[in-house]
From TrEMBL:
Keyword Mitochondrion assigned: no
Alphabetical list of PANTHER family matching this protein: MEMBRANE PROTEIN, MEMBRANE PROTEIN-RELATED
Keyword flag Transmembrane: yes
Protein name: DUF3817 domain-containing protein
Amino acid sequence: MKKSVLTRYRVMAYVTAVMLLVLCTCMVFKYGFDTGEDITFMVSQAHGVLYIVYLVFAFDLGSKAKWSFGRLLWVLVSGTIPTAAFFVERKVVRDVGPLLEGGASAAPARA
């Protein structure tokens, strides 16, 4: 598996997680303080589009890493739970690292 598959998943995991936290903050201001309705709409739309991109990249990574359906589902759903994507991303990197071709985690060549 190429390193770029993991890299684009990682980028989208962080972007999706940050956007979800921003969206949660906007929702608190919208419903708690009755302000920021327009910004909440914009952030929710942006998060929705970015989450779809995250789903595509996570599914691509999962299919190349040959994950079980349950594990793939957990990774896909983690983009909807605030802060979960940060923790799931770390675990995915740790588990997928040895599968990368030609990366630093590949076994060294014998002399």
